[in-house]
Amino acid sequence: MSLEEFKLIDAKALPVGKLIAMIARGHTIYINRHLEDLNITATQLHLLFEISHQCNINQEKIASRCNINKGSVARSIKKLEDKGLIKREIDENNRRQNKISLTQFGEETLSEAIKILNQWEDEVILDKGYIEKELLQKILKEIAIKTMELNLGECKNG
Predict the structure, then answer these.
(1) How far apart are the first and last CA of the chain?
(2) How many Å apart are CA 87 and CA 74, to the nearest integer?
(3) Which DSSP letter does residue 11 get?
């Protein structure tokens, strides 16, 4: 469907999930295109965020937080390490696990990537002035939490 065709559809006829999926996909395309100069992908950026939020995090926790399988996380972590963005150290409390943290270069790269994210947000959210960014963030966080709770409940019951 073209952009012009999509504009003609009544918003009430579109399921919220479809709109969220379209926004997420469009965001990923935008971010990947703009992250090329930083030599990272949107998925790798997602992992860098998790690592930055908790220094010395392990791969299992990253996989859980990002809702990505452990194998994919391991491959992405290897790529990030090869690029000098993260470092792995053996966890002295559990020698089978690695503690992962950002390098200085990783922190600098994340800082530049955040600028790209902010550009997208400015263009998409702030440009039209439909809603205050902070209010949107709060609402989306609540929806994300509820979604996670629903999925956790299904996993436990399933």
Answers:
(1) 36
(2) 13
(3) G
Position 48, amino acid: L
Pair of tokens at residue 79: 């790529």
DSSP code of residue 12? G
Q: Which of 96, 76, 98, 97 is nearest to 87 (CA)?
A: 98
Separation of alpha carbons 80 and 129, rounded Å? 37
pTM of the full predicted structure?
0.79
Q: Sign of the C-alpha dihedral, residues 41, 47, 49, 55? A: negative
Count the residues in the chain: 158
User: What does the pLDDT look like over 120-143, one tens digit per residue?
Assistant: 988 888 777 778 888 988 999 999
What is the fold of 15-127? Arc Repressor Mutant, subunit A (1.10.10)
Which residues, other chains included, contact 14 with Cβ-Cβ below 8 Å and sequence gap of 6+?
A: none
